[in-house]
Write a structure and sequence with these properties.
By secondary structure, the protein is mostly helical. The chain has four helices and no strands.
Length: 67
């Protein structure tokens, strides 16, 4: 799912800098999320997919328009 969100951002023409931030969010979520117990606690507050969607919305001027 996370890779699809990043692919769609690329397809929509989101700048490489934002794509890089999105990849960073994904890597952070994957690395820390893989640590037993600590990763579970981290996953409660750090939602990489939601952060990435917000980055896309902000870049395309769509923030607040989702139903």
């Amino acid at each position: 799912m996370a890779a699809y969100i990043i692919f769609e951002a690329w397809r929509l023409g989101v700048p490489k800098q934002i794509i890089g931030k999105m990849l960073g969010n994904l890597v952070i979520d994957w690395v820390i999320g893989s640590i037993p117990i600590i990763g579970d606690i981290f996953d409660i507050g750090f939602k990489a997919n939601l952060r990435n969607i917000r980055l896309i919305e902000d870049e395309l001027g769509l923030a607040g328009e989702a139903a």
